[in-house]
Amino acid sequence: MSDKIEAKVTHRFRASPERVFDAFVDPAFTRRWHSAWLRRNGLAGILTRTEIDPQVGGAFMLADDRDGQEARHWGRFTELERPTKIGFTFIVDESEEEEPGTVTMIIEPEPNGPGSIVTLYNTMDAQWEEWLAQTERGWIALLNGLEDVIERRDIPAPV
Question: Residues in domain Activator of Hsp90 ATPase homologue 1/2-like C-terminal (predicted)?
């Protein structure tokens, strides 16, 4: 077992925990937040694969074209406790297949409000330490992209 590090980000949503949970795992929404996440990261958002099987043990694959290279993110769901918890393995490089990183999203009702607060923990091998800040920025962009989808800001306005 190698040493581990953890990225941690928190995001407040105006939406209920149920709505946040459903938007994250619903295959109909996945393609939209995947694209919004890429745009939030300053990328073109050219999706090559967006697959999700939202059940414990179900696999997912998110892939996009970055200057002619396919960037892939994949794993399997380990926990789905609607509306409070989503857990999954998270792999970005084949070398991680044996010991994948793990992600846990805790979704809590906002105190004294109608929304929710998501705290996301990404535990990964310490070899990726120099990528920790970039990883946190990526998760922030993903949660912002998810919010764009929930709030319908990802749909272009009619011209």
Answer: 14-150
